[in-house]
Amino acid sequence: MSDIRILCIEDNAENRLLVRRILEAEGFSVLEATDGPSGLESAAQMRPDLILLDINLPEMDGYDLARRFRNTPGLQQVPILAVTANVMQGDRERSLEAGCDGYIQKPIDVDRLPEQVRAALQKTGTERQV
Ligand code: MN
Q: Under CATH, domain 5-123 is a member of which superfamily?
């Protein structure tokens, strides 16, 4: 089991379960949060190595949340991958502007998610031995 911890912030239970299954099978530890406030709290307490951030969350959307992470001491460097079903042009730019490091389109591709996560960890120099 690796000590790399991924925080999945996602309001949809099926998607959380999917992410958990895929990433645990690859040896990552998966933490879950269902909305912005609990995601912020979990991140501050758990200091995850990477955050998978659903953009479409109730109340506080993922863009707002990403900006908050970037303004929270200790969380500024944590890589964030935005996850969204929205295929509107400009979403990628919006997520990057909000402070995300990358962008994953829903539906989540079971075969590609592990490599997308590893790439984000490597890009930000986070990856240890998996
Ligand atoms: Mn959602």
A: Response regulator (3.40.50.2300)
